[in-house]
Every structure is written in structure tokens, then in C-alpha cells.
Specification:
With 150 residues, the protein is an alpha+beta fold. 47% of the residues lie in helices and 13% in strands. The chain has a three-stranded antiparallel sheet, with no helix packed on it.
Length: 150
């Protein structure tokens, strides 16, 4: 197999076709800067799987990859294909940036925050269920503090 660099993240792979003859296919891989720490990303993937009470084989089958490939993703030791990462994010219904433990660029616009703590999610759901007057009253109360009263 001959691999020739094409551009950032793209390689041209020359291989023998399944039925003889040579074929060329393009394979994309993530630049190193996209995944800050593959082990941390793998742990996040493993935590998602464990929280859903599934096996590696269950998730691998659902997203269409081999269990051994999925295990490498969880261990942070395998090559990361964008297709696999997208499939995992879609399967667990989590934002891709959250899954990859990315932070917004320092000078970039911050469109939103990632919320992954159940307590914060509960607060957001509470606020979304309130009307504008209730929200303003709650915000004013929180800014004043409880003054030791419950």
C-alpha cells in the first residue's frame, strides 16, 4: 500500500481492488490539533457508552464499525476517522465539539456553552419553562442572594 500526502488531513491510498486491478481512494484523517487529547476523547466516548449501559459491540454495530476499531477509539490509541467520530456524536446525540473536547478560539465568537452537568441542565430547563417576568424575578432574587434564608 502506497500512501502519498495530498493536503492537510488528506491522503491518497493506492491499493489492489477486491477483484484485481488497482484502485485509488481518498481517506481523511483529523489534523492533530482537532483532537487535543485522544485519551480524554476516548474516555468521554467510554463514559457515554457506559451511561447508556451498552457494550462496545453494541455501539460499534450501531455505527457500522468493527468492535476492535471502536475499542481503539475508547482507548485513544487508534486512528480517528471523521466518519466514526461523527457517527458517535450522532448516535449519542452530543455536539461534535463537546465530544472532541474543543474550546472556542480565544478571539472567536462564543455562540453558546456546552452544558454537561445534570444540575446545570436542570436550571436551564427551569428557566426555559418560565415567562419573561418570572425569569427577571428569579434573576433579581439570585443576584440579591438568599441572605441566609431558605
Amino acid at each position: 500500500m502506497n500512501v502519498h500526502a495530498m493536503s492537510v488531513g488528506q491522503t491518497d491510498v493506492k491499493s489492489k481492488g477486491a477483484v484485481g486491478g488497482a484502485g485509488t481512494r481518498r481517506r481523511w484523517s483529523m489534523p492533530q490539533t482537532v483532537v487535543a487529547d485522544p485519551k480524554k476523547v476516548g474516555q468521554r466516548i467510554k463514559d457515554l457508552r457506559n451511561a447508556s449501559s451498552q457494550t462496545q459491540a453494541d455501539v460499534a454495530e450501531a455505527i457500522g464499525i468493527a468492535r476492535s476499531t471502536y475499542a481503539e477509539l475508547e482507548n485513544g490509541t487508534g486512528g480517528v476517522s471523521i466518519e466514526s467520530i461523527l457517527a458517535i456524536a450522532d448516535y449519542f446525540k452530543v455536539p461534535l465539539d463537546w465530544l472532541l473536547i474543543r474550546t472556542p478560539p480565544p478571539d472567536g465568537p462564543l455562540v453558546g456553552y456546552f452544558v454537561d452537568h445534570p444540575g446545570e441542565i436542570a436550571w436551564i430547563e427551569l428557566l426555559r419553562g418560565m415567562g419573561p417576568d418570572e425569569r427577571n424575578a428569579m434573576l433579581a432574587m439570585l443576584r440579591r442572594g438568599t441572605s441566609g434564608r431558605y
